[in-house]
Amino acid sequence: MELEYGFNDCHMRKSSTFNDNVSWTMLEQPLQELRLILKLTMRMETSFDLRAVFSHCPDLQVLHIRTTSTFRLLGPWVPKEISPPSTLSLQQPQPQQQPQQQDYGQEQVLKTKQDSLSASFSPKVLALRELVLERAHFYQASLERLLCVTPNLDTLRLIDLNRHSWLTSYPAPVEYDQQRLIDFLQNPSFSQQPKILPLKSFSFSIASKQNRNHDRDIQTAYKELSPTSPEMTFYVEDLSAPLLKYLREVVANVVTTLELRYNDIHRFSPDPVLHRYMCSSPHLLHLKAPNTFYLVDLLDIHGRMESATTRITGHTGGGGAGTGADGRAGGTNSLMGPPGIWTCKNLQTLHLSFRATGNTNSTTNSSYSTSNNSSYSTITSTGGIPKTNSRIVFGYISRVCPNLKDLQLRAAENFYWSAWIPHGAGTTITQRQRLHLTLDSGFCLLARLTRLEQFSLGCISGSGTSASFVSRNMVWNLELVDLDWMLEEGHRDVRRREMRRIIVAERWEYLLHEERVNMLQKAMETNWWVSRTRKMIPHNTIANTSNTSKHLLRGRTDPEIHEQLKNLGLLVDVKNMLEEMEIENERQGGEGGEGEYFKCWPMLRWMRIYHSTEYGRSKEREVRRLLTQPLELKFKHKAY
């Protein structure tokens, strides 16, 4: 059985020894009777006694311990009743052969003696198969002793190991050495070597430590310990060219799980390697890169963002970013290359952070500052990602990855998350961005994900009044009609369905008409530019580039998915989705009125929207929270 437990202040009880809060609590609970999988999440700095865990849960197979702060693992970890196999005789004495004819009582006595003799000479080991420690503080020697009694271990993940801990009386930091761990596991004298190696999954990272040779160390670790592992965890802000080559060539592009862990701000990268990898990895099932800077522009396959026209014409008009008349880079689109369609259509887990470039015209509050160097300036804005961009994100994910079960999306909600983006010559822009939740933002497009089990949107750091205020501003002025499409009552109630129809038919009528006119005008401008370019460029140049001009998208494109994305970013895509919901409601309601109406996310376990809670709530509770404004915020002005 599995237990997921989150520790906070109310669960902690003070112990008289080592202040071992967590282990003291566990000793009071009969975990040893039924638990095989134990996952702990702690929200305060504390100490932890692994020996107590393994003593009371000898059959524990999976152990995950993580914290939002840090925790110290007291040593030693191995229980007293378990000795390293090297100190025991592995040769069991053979009992003497007995005559075949004997009574039943003598046979039972002989069997009992054999079992006790075998048990006394057999080395005791732990059943642990998977060990994941995140933000832990311990001595590496304790881990190495534990590995001597875990022959079944196939997953070892050490994430963001802390070298310092306020709970220890030793001022000197603890040192972690990945190469030492590799040498220990590969040592021929290590008795568990043929059983443990190769590992199914391995990762090793140290918090707040810069490593210039990180790419090389990653490749060495996987090559030595888990050469055939389909799971990769990199402590980087984005994929680099060497890592991309390693994933494509060395491991033959068979990775099913890719995790990028990075705690600092991810600055703009002119070569989005992760995007190139997503467009050429059909086997990928799980991607976790919550802090990775992924540009919405890379999903805009039709060029419908405000700055997308420069991708075709190269002009700076229309608020876009591109190459100006002087030949200098006026933005980021000229560096990003063509957008593309992901080939990982079977993706089940997606944790990603999205940013948009050069949208200062859409912000409501911005300031311009110039540094001491006159050639460098910074624009700080507090606006949101335009709703066109939100529709691109929601529409793209719902079409390209229809099998998602775990979806966590972020933007630059917090100021310190703001991404520094090149904006013209010698200028950068930092924005506080968010994904919109209104009906016209396309949030309802995610209803296509029928297998979704966990959903999180936005990241609010901190706690208390500050976090609450930021969270409320992210969802300010939301109405019931914006969110009731995800509730069963929103489809069963005729009046609420009629409200959505009125919005589409009346409020969106002009917007839809303007959208059609803009699309026609853009098509005419594109055709004019193409014909003008053909007249100016020599015919031999056109012939030489004819092969490359046919492929406007990065990677291979699925014709079916490309057809489904024809309305990507447009308001008509949202209109069509609402009509599909209404058709389902009328079909089910017409069968007597008691049929099953449209069900949004029928397998959803929990959801979390712009909130700092760990596991979220049900759809009904989360919608109720989003639509309920506290009294202290009702009379304050909107921050965005």
Task: Please state the overall shape, judged from the principal axes of the Cα atoms.
Answer: elongated
| Poorly predicted segments | 5-34, 86-104, 113-122, 307-335, 359-384, 415-429, 539-551, 631-640
Q: Residue share in helices? A: 25-40%
Average pLDDT metric: 71
Distance from first to last alpha carbon: 47 Å
Structural class assignment? alpha/beta
Radius of gyration of CA atoms, rounded to a whole number: 29 Å
Please, how many helices?
23
Quaternary organisation? single chain
State the strand order across the main sheet: 10-11-12-13-16-19-20
Strand content: 15-25%
Would you report the number of β strands?
20
Overall description:
- The chain is α/β, with parallel strands linked by helices and 640 residues long.
- The protein has a domain at 1-88 and 113-197.
- Helices cover 33% and strands 16% of the residues.
- The protein has 23 helices and 20 strands.
- The strands form four sheets. The chain has a seven-stranded parallel sheet. The chain has a six-stranded parallel sheet with strand order 1-2-4-6-8-9. The protein has a four-stranded mixed sheet with strand order 14-15-18-17, with no helix packed on it.
- Helix 9 (273-278) links the parallel strand 11 and strand 12.
- The longest helix has 28 residues, at 509-536.
- It starts with a strand and ends in a 6-residue tail after the last helix.
